[in-house]
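Model: Ready when you are.
Researcher: Fold this.
Model:
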Amino acid sequence: MGLLSTLIIGRQNGFRARIRRRVFGAASAVTQTDDPPPPPAEAALGLSPEAPKNVTPPEGYEVVLHREALMPGGITEIIIAGRAIAVANIGGTFRASASSCTHAAPCPLGEGELEDGIVTCWVHGWQYELATGECLTSPDAPLTTHDVQIVGDAVCVRI
């Protein structure tokens, strides 16, 4: 999708696309059909599983989402403890980092493109390795990363 159309209609999995799907349904003319389906239990309602409430996270961690709420190859932004955190599922391994592009905030990396563990800022094109926080575009501008643990079905992030 070109930059102009991204700015006008939003990213395929971005905030505006989610609003369009909720308002107009999945058949919206601007919704693309290659989105992964939601988990089966909530598929009928178009919802992702809620973060488990019966899980006690490890000391210093917060439960941020259900592990099936984010399919492999997906990335999302979570606000936890007043911070915007980008959480990604890279082939079943969850990674978390600060969600703002270090080039020029505020540009949520949770709406960026994720491929092979590298997230690309949808505004600036800067790239980050989520496992290490390394900025591939400018090595002097790394992302803050957060430890992630899976407890049962809960994705827990150290804050």
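Researcher: Now this one.
Model:
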Amino acid sequence: MVRPIMRDPLFLAGKSAPATEADKQVVQDLLDTLKANQDRCVGMAANMIGVRKNIIVVAAGPFMFAMINAKITRRKGAYQTEEGCLSLDGVRPCTRYQEIEVDYLDQNFQPQHGKYTDWIAQIIQHELDHVDGVVI
């Protein structure tokens, strides 16, 4: 189900709780909402649809994937950039890393480890900031 986008900075600043298999519908709703907003959005976190759970989704071209309870385990190549967000107006400065490694559960709650670079790494970092209540 496509959900409305949360725009309340106080809600977005709250830290998310770990997701469980009981949150499978949230994962699907997040994927549906990202797809509906793909013309102006490349990633989303569950708090952007009003659910404080550690779930993010990322669009890599036409392919979309979920990362549940994700943790960045390695960062390399810090750089400064500016980012916008579907939940907020304007752009803000932030520090990102060119290469990251992430441990997470996939949409079927199976453990995964991924290495990401460049644009996809930046998207993941932005969404994981959301999960941690970091509002850029």
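Researcher: Key takeaway?
Model: The helical segments are 9-12, 24-36, 118-131.
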